[in-house]
Amino acid sequence: MVSGLQMDYRRFQSQAQLACYTNERDAIREYDATTPITTNLMGTFKDLDYFEWAKEMDVVSWDNYPGMDTPPSFTAMCHDLMRGIGGNKPFMLMEQTPNQQNWFPFCKVKQPGEVRKLSWQAVAHGADTVRFFQMKQSLGGCERFHGAVIAHDGTEESRVFKETAALGEELDRIGRRIMGSRIESRVAIMFDWQSYWSLEGCVGPTTGFNYPNEVHRFYRALWRRNVPVDMIASTTPLARLSQYDLAIAPALITVLPGVAETLEAYVADGGTFITGYMAGIHDEHDLVVPGGYPGKLRRLMGVWVEEIDALAPGETIEVHGGTVDAKGEIVASIIHREGAERLATYGGDEFYAGHSALTVNAYGKGKVYFVGTPLDETGMSAFMAPIIKELDLKSLDTPEDVSLSVRYGDGGTRYAFLINNSAADKRLCLSELNGGTELLTGTVINDLIELKPYGVDVIALR
Q: Can you give the pTM of this predicted structure?
């Protein structure tokens, strides 16, 4: 297999399908000059470079169909990605099911309140619409068992119909005041379709990588602390990149022309950058950059990765240092420091035990961190915690499974979305928010907040 041809074909495939969309869009525009035109996108769908697609769309819209085991943090990341490809403007939740999907091996029905929670989660991350597929359940075809507002029984007395109608009433009552408000973030994560294609197309050193999962590995540590995130392209210009205090590029195996230079300028001027395992190895032709990993990022990161050890499924490697007591998986970068400082080392009985696993390098006015191995959730959280604190990213602690997002409107208005992503009652005290009015009930909120299973509070903050 010639990997460069594979990359060229993937680019051609994305561009060819985009050309089909623009041809259809332009045909409509001959007769309608004003109606916004869009098409359904699908989150982290591999085959299409959505940053390129979004440039041709009047508004980004997407279909949200999380699986039974999809973490709420992954769904949140997908919403942020769809917001990000559109330049952080509000997006449309074009499709979701009012009950169960039909294409999984086991199609669980949604719990009472779960669809409402998913709908408000979309709004919390920047959606200005909540829509469903399908209105009336089809009698035939492959989606006959896909959930619908009106099921095969045709009644309005069903649980699903009543929950959907109640959600519609809530959105109608307070939605207009929220529409157009935005997310404000000081953190950016790069989602790079070129790296997506290259990383998962590699023959070696492992077949264990799923690119969206590696992005989520970093995203989850921020989501858990309720730190808002913008998703950006790796080719984001310096002027925009400089708006962020922290930029993260998980598994950025493909470094496109100009990207390394932009990152160097960003850090030299005071930015903080994180990348790590598999980064910098390939150029835009999917050829290895000679001279040692991480290629064009080597000078910036202050490390040379001599070898990459692949870990078998279920195999882990210990990582210890400072507040980090973790396990790594999939690969372990065997690192030589070239100016970088050691933050943690590999444990265990491999010959590279004692070698650096996590490093930090001062570059100009800024810092860069290199993560040598995919850390488990506890380890990634421990690694990110001091960075969040040092940059004063205003993290807010909430109980397990409770998320907090804030949208900012005109005139200093702020709307906080507290969402219980679990089937258990939750109680929390958030004095940092300074209280406000819960818009769905009219209740005045001071400190103590109680959330029912899959409960949602939308608070107009003081």
A: 0.97
